[in-house]
Automatic annotation (TrEMBL):
GO molecular function per UniProt: FMN binding
Gene3D superfamilies named in the record: 3.40.50.360
SUPFAM superfamilies in the record: Flavoproteins
Name under which the protein is recorded: Flavodoxin-like domain-containing protein
């Protein structure tokens, strides 16, 4: 099963989840870059209000074709209890997402707020069949097998019939 893992990461936490998921699934990584180029203070002062309003960022890559994949995962950090403007734009940039199985994840310091619900709704609006969502904290990522719940959403294990 081929998996496309699309994510935005400013501090590296969402990148770490995406990389661990890629290692577990053999999936391809697509890192979305926000062309605003936020400084650390800019993430809070400029980016968080934009996230709260559900705005879309100018991103690179501007289009993301997932038509050749069997499943899609989209990940975002949490800014102001919402997905980042770059993650919002990534969902809007998807091509070939219709009818694809999908999953979402977010990374936060412990309060994902509306992030997962909004990401799920955006993907459903685009025609994806969202299987589920997982939130991660830095502490979660210290545990072995932290991404297994996300792996199971992307590659459900066959049930043995004995």
């Amino acid at each position: 099963m081929s998996v496309c893992i699309i994510f935005h990461s400013e501090t590296g936490t969402a990148r770490a989840v995406a990389q661990r998921l890629a290692a577990a699934t053999g999936g391809d990584l697509v890192e979305v870059r926000d062309l605003a180029g936020y400084s650390k203070a800019g993430m809070y002062l400029k980016g968080a209000p934009r996230a709260l309003r559900g705005e879309l960022a100018a991103i690179e890559p501007a289009l993301i074709d997932v038509s050749g994949y069997d499943a899609v995962v989209v990940g975002s950090p949490v800014w102001a209890f919402n997905p980042t403007p770059a993650a919002n734009a990534a969902v809007a940039a998807l091509r070939g997402i219709e009818e694809k199985p999908a999953a979402v994840f977010c990374t936060s310091r412990g309060a994902p707020g509306k992030t997962l619900d909004r990401m799920r709704a955006m993907l459903v609006d685009r025609g994806a069949k969202v299987r589920g969502a997982v939130s991660f904290t830095d502490r979660d990522l210290q545990k072995a097998g932290a991404v297994e719940a996300l792996v199971d959403l992307v590659q459900p294990r066959a049930v043995s019939r004995t």
